[in-house]
Write a structure and sequence with these properties.
Number of strands: 10
Catalytic activity: L-seryl-[protein] + ATP = O-phospho-L-seryl-[protein] + ADP + H(+); L-threonyl-[protein] + ATP = O-phospho-L-threonyl-[protein] + ADP + H(+)
Radius of gyration: 31 Å
Largest sheet: 5 strands, antiparallel
CATH superfamily of the largest domain: Gnk2 domain, C-X8-C-X2-C motif
CATH architecture of the largest domain: 2-Layer Sandwich
Main location: other
Subcellular location: Cell junction, Plasmodesma; Cell membrane
Strand content: 15-25%
Family: Belongs to the cysteine-rich repeat secretory protein family. Plasmodesmata-located proteins (PDLD) subfamily.
CATH topology of the largest domain: Killer Toxin P4, Chain A
Number of helices: 6
Order of helices and strands: HEHEEHEEEHEEHEEH
Helix content: 40-55%
Structural class: alpha+beta
Protein name: Cysteine-rich receptor-like protein kinase 2
């Protein structure tokens, strides 16, 4: 039996079913990247550990939107952390993380670095930094220099939404979103702490981050990139819609991946089965040839004449 010729089409249809899951925005564009000034100790160990770190975190990101990894032995140990912001679906989270580790790999031969994207964060270093929430590289990034239509009203709305999000995030697994609208002006805010820091450190990080970001006012866009948290405000609604069930999308993705894997296994099975069948046919033909009765051979005397 030949493998079904419609199998590639079936795979294509299944893969295309992923498209509706990506209707949100992964926000996978880089805001800032920092590479450490210390060079790696052993290039072979560093590359091996970084690849292992990326893969281990990837397995966690597609399930939880967050991942940690620790590999190697001193002085070549690798500590990695990646996290998507709370409004990203798992599908978009994987897209953002892929961009994050691809860009961060360019820090080599530095032994570490961190990258802030508008949808996720990643950091890699040679020491355990997981409980850090403040540091010398904390900063604000003011995006759009233009002011809102009514700078005073917009400033009030931003402060209101930021205050609400900063207060709520430490009590809600480190993530909160908020918005405020009045007389045609709107402000949208996202506040997110890394899951490796505790509630009090999250509150402290966001408190400092909010002060830094508010320094961008009356500009219409402001971000705070901190060691333990991220905060953004804007007059544009950059937030993804709240999904009906965050876990349902993960289940759908898992189901689709399982189906694709199953179809691939079927394809391989059919190919192997077809090869075995052909091999058996060949073996049978060989057996038939060896068991055929020998035909009698008749010898005829003949003469050879040579012509000059």
């Amino acid at each position: 039996m030949e493998p079904p010729k419609k199998l590639p089409l079936l795979l294509l249809l299944i893969l295309s079913s992923l498209t509706p899951l990506a209707t949100a925005d992964a926000r996978a564009h880089t805001i800032s990247t920092y590479c450490t000034t210390t060079l790696e100790h052993n290039s072979t160990a560093f590359v091996t550990n970084f690849i292992g770190e990326v893969n281990r975190i990837a397995e966690q990101m597609q399930l939880n939107g967050y991942g940690l990894a620790v590999l190697g032995v001193s002085p070549d140990m690798a500590y990695g952390l990646a996290q998507c912001y709370g409004d990203l679906s798992l599908f978009d989270c994987v897209l953002c993380y892929t961009e994050a580790h691809t860009v961060l790999s360019k820090c080599y031969p530095s032994n570490g670095g961190r990258i802030y994207l508008d949808g996720c964060f990643m950091r890699s270093d040679s020491y355990n930094f997981f409980d850090e929430f403040t540091g010398p590289h904390d900063k604000a990034v003011c995006g759009n220099a233009t002011t809102a239509q009514d700078g005073v009203r917009f400033t009030t709305l931003v402060k209101q939404a930021v205050s609400s999000a900063v207060a709520a995030a430490p009590l809600s697994r480190g993530y909160a979103r908020d918005s405020a609208t009045a007389q045609g002006e709107s402000a949208y805010v996202l506040a997110n702490c890394w899951r490796t820091i505790n509630q009090s450190d999250c509150a402290a990080c966001l408190s400092n981050a909010s002060k830094a970001a508010l320094g961008c006012l009356p500009g219409s866009e402001g971000r705070a990139l901190y060691t333990g948290c991220f905060l953004r405000y804007s007059n544009t609604d950059f937030l993804n819609a709240i999904p009906g069930s965050g876990h349902s999308k993960g289940k759908i993705i898992a189901i689709v991946v399982a189906i694709v894997s199953a179809v691939a296994l079927v394809a391989v099975g059919l190919a192997v089965g077809n090869a075995i069948r052909k091999n058996r046919i060949i073996q049978k033909k060989r057996k038939d040839v060896t068991t055929m009765p020998l035909m009698p051979i008749t010898y005829h005397r003949f003469s050879i004449h040579c012509y000059n």
